[in-house]
């Protein structure tokens, strides 16, 4: 079973969210385990205080090392050692390849959610294996980031989704953005489903989807497009078709 423990000040909110829908059903089938732990339960004072003023002055407060450590130690003692990640805007930006790495290299993650001005550096140095950010922006707490990482990793665990195709054909799996998707009815507000998708010709449908992925990646994420290997005969043909279509439009 793949396990994810989340250290947080909002365990009920995080726990409820992580037990819904696909992830909830996967937990019911014992494929994954996701548990949120209230950091305040591990303080040694009656006020359940987890933060204090920062050394050196400045505004705000810093989460103290010991409540974090006691919570982390409880998780390790209960469920065994885990790869510990601090959700931090100063961390490495999270990508799909990181989700695959975390799934493949570990079977137990411990995600630490910071608040206020951050957490005591000494806890990071003693217990944290890596720091991860979900983008170049700052949130009021690490919960949203932790849930993003937990969801992205957990959905890749075998058995969580019905079939590997559920994620292998999606954006970022192979360095490209996913092609447009359509459902019934065939016409909605005057907009029709592309005829090729109703043709039943699976080879041509696959080619159309590949071409749309190439086009969407080039238009929206030129940084990803520059890294693509489009040297195959099939891709070169699709590129020529795209050029012809753009010339005609």
Question: What this model shows, in words?
Answer:
Helices cover 41% and strands 17% of the residues. The protein has helices at 11-18, 21-28, 65-79, 96-105, 121-127, 143-154, 165-168, 202-220, 222-225, 233-248; strands at residues 2-8, 32-38, 51-52, 62-63, 83-93, 108-113, 130-133, 187-188, 191-192. The chain has a 5-stranded parallel beta sheet with strand order 2-1-6-5-7, sandwiched between helices. A two-stranded antiparallel ribbon has the order 3-4. It has a two-stranded antiparallel ribbon with strand order 8-9. Helix 3 (65-79) runs parallel beside helix 5 (121-127), helix 4 crosses helix 6 (143-154) and helix 8 (202-220) crosses helix 10. The longest helix has 19 residues, at 202-220. It is elongated, with a radius of gyration of 23 Å. It is an enzyme of class 2 (transferase). Its EC number is 2.1.1.228.
């Amino acid at each position: 079973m793949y396990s994810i423990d989340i250290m947080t000040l909002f365990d009920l909110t995080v726990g409820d969210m992580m037990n819904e829908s696909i992830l909830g059903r996967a937990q019911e089938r014992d494929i994954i385990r996701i548990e949120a732990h209230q950091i305040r339960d591990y303080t040694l004072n009656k006020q359940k205080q987890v933060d204090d003023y920062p050394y050196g002055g400045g505004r705000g407060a810093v989460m103290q090392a010991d409540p974090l450590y006691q919570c982390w130690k409880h998780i390790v003692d209960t469920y065994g050692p885990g790869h510990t990640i601090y959700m931090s805007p100063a961390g490495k930006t999270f990508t799909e390849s990181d989700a695959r790495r975390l799934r493949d290299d570990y079977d137990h993650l411990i995600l630490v959610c910071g608040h206020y001005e951050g957490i005591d550096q000494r806890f990071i140095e003693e217990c944290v294996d890596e720091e991860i950010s979900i983008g170049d922006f700052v949130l009021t707490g690490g919960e949203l980031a932790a849930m993003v990482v937990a969801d992205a990793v957990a959905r890749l665990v075998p058995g969580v989704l019905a079939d590997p195709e559920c994620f292998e054909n999606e954006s970022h799996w192979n360095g490209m953005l996913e092609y447009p998707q359509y459902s019934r009815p065939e016409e909605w507000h005057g907009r029709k489903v592309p005829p090729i998708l109703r043709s039943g010709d699976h080879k041509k449908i696959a080619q159309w989807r590949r071409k749309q992925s190439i086009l969407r990646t080039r238009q929206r994420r030129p940084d990803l497009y520059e890294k693509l290997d489009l040297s195959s005969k099939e891709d070169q043909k699709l590129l020529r078709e795209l050029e012809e279509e753009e010339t005609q439009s």
